[in-house]
Amino acid sequence: MIKKFIDKLLGKPAGKAGARSPLGKRVEVQAAEHGIDPNLLDERAVRVVQTLSDAGFEAYIVGGAVRDLLLGMRPKDFDVATNATPEQVKGLFRRAFIIGRRFRIVHVVYGRGREHEVIEVSTFRALLANDGAEQVSGNEKTSKAELAGKSHVVDAEGRVLRDNVWGPQIEDAARRDYTVNALYYDPQRQIVVDYHGGIADAKKRVLRMIGDPETRYREDPVRIIRAVRFAAKLGFEVEPKTRAPIRTCAALLANVPASRLFDEMIKLLQTGHSLASLGELRKQGLARGVFPILDAMLDAKGELGEGPAAQFVRLAFEDTDRRVQEGRGVSPSFMLACMLWREVLERWTRIREGGEPTVPALSMAIDEVFDARIGDISGRGKLATDMREIWMMQPRFERRSGSGVYTLVEQPRYRAGFDFLRLRADAGEIDAALADWWEDFALGGDEDRAALIEEAREADKKSRGPKVHQLPRKSAPAKAAAPDEPAADDEAGPAAKKRRRRRRPKSAGAAAEGAAADGAGS
Q1: Which residue stretches does the UniProt record annotate as biased composition, category Low complexity (predicted)?
Q2: Contact 135/145 with Cβ under 8 angstroms?
């Protein structure tokens, strides 16, 4: 009681011993020691720091960007931390927007359209013990009214729902998660400010939690997933004390909003080390039961398994990793379409076997998978549209005649649909000749395309031939032929008429079928 009273007089946050992170000690590391290459810096991030400094505020490049710079890597994103409040930051930039409720931050925007860049600016936060915070029984959605106007709130499990109390840099460093993420770089003086030995841990490639790991996981269970991501991406080893509570605290992830957990899964698999991330999830006992989409893709051991379906996903991940490492763009919708294809295919097959036509059956299967594995998450609409278009193209690739082939290659998502088809072929799920035909058709001129369509038409005739003539031969003895017409013509006539109808590019039936496929993928 006396200690609490003294702490209160001195303005120190109340809390149980060991329940809060140590403040650490400020150490300024010079350029000769940290070795950061200024050429790896983002000029817009430096400009933000300069603007804040010129206005009389402290400002640093912070977090993962500094960690990556220390490792000689060019960071993908640059964040800035300052002692200016969000309102003060917003007032210094022409295009700046305050966002977030849990953490209020400022997005400073440069450029427009696809070429725009966002520098995220956060205000130094105070280190507060959770037992001094206001508590609500629900979560972000169920307790919106209780959270309104409050700055520091936790739920019943100790998860931080609001953290908007400003403080000095030394406390801001202590409330960050891992030592390698609690680093501040001043590009003007070229010094790194280190409070918790983050530079040493980065050199040793060790991931170590600041403070008591279990308490920190309870504050934000997503730190568990971040540990997996950093270990896989950077090749770091999770320090034993940091690893110890992971399995027991994994159940806390059930309280995290589905949209946030979904975003973390996307980050986990798009670092350029997706297969390594799956391995790290298995290592930490998290391969199953955390992400519904992974549960649909992995076996009981948390592995991809064997066979064409597993090989298809493996090839998709390898392709994603390669694109990231080459600095090329990757699409979350394409990756998710690959991850969920096995389940879509299984449901599609079952629905067709129940008598549903091909295209409606596929649409029904897609709806079932979305409801079971993705649910109601932020951004689902755009993702769902792109994924549906990729999947709905697959049966259309089977038809290589009529005007539909020309329409298909002009679709905005054709390339994604074809890449998906190619992966299926490479995995052995379908005949590689089909993917080769579409690649040749897409790249060919008018004469080449006409020849390819004729070639496909002849191949279809041969493949249908035995099936068309077999049944009439067996039933011929029981069916009298007309005196003036040979039996062979009876067999060939209807089949030929059917083939002619399929070749008519502008028939009502073909147009309706094409419209159905297009509509389902829109």
Answers
A1: 507-522
A2: no
Average pLDDT over residues 217-234: 93
DSSP 3-state of 178: strand
d(CA 375, CA 272): 26
Rounded to 10°, the helix 380-396/414-426 angle is 60
> Given a cut of 50, is residue 491 above it in pLDDT?
no
The sign of the dihedral angle between the CA atoms of 334, 335, 338, 341 is: negative
- pLDDT over 70, % of the chain: 76
Q: Is 177 a catalytic residue?
A: yes
- Sheet containing 183-186: order of strands: 27-29, 191-194, 183-186, 59-62, 79-82, 117-123, 105-110, 96-99
Least confident piece of the model among 139-143, 169-173, 177-181, 400-404: 139-143
Secondary structure, 3-state, 51-103:
HHHHCCCCEEEECHHHHHHHCCCCCCCCEEEECCCHHHHHCCCCCEEEECCCC
440 in catalytic set: no
pLDDT at 9: 40
Q: What is the pTM of this model?
A: 0.73
Catalytic residue chosen out of the listed positions 42, 68, 155, 177? 177
Catalytic residue from among 7, 77, 212, 295: 77
- Provide DSSP, 281-295: HHHTT-SSSS-HHHH
Are residues 66 and 58 in contact, defined by beta-carbon separation less than 8 angstroms?
no
Q: Cα(45)–Cα(118) distance, rounded to whole angstroms?
A: 9
Which tokens is 519 given? 């509509």
pLDDT of residue 302: 87
**pLDDT greater at residue 241 or residue 138:** 241
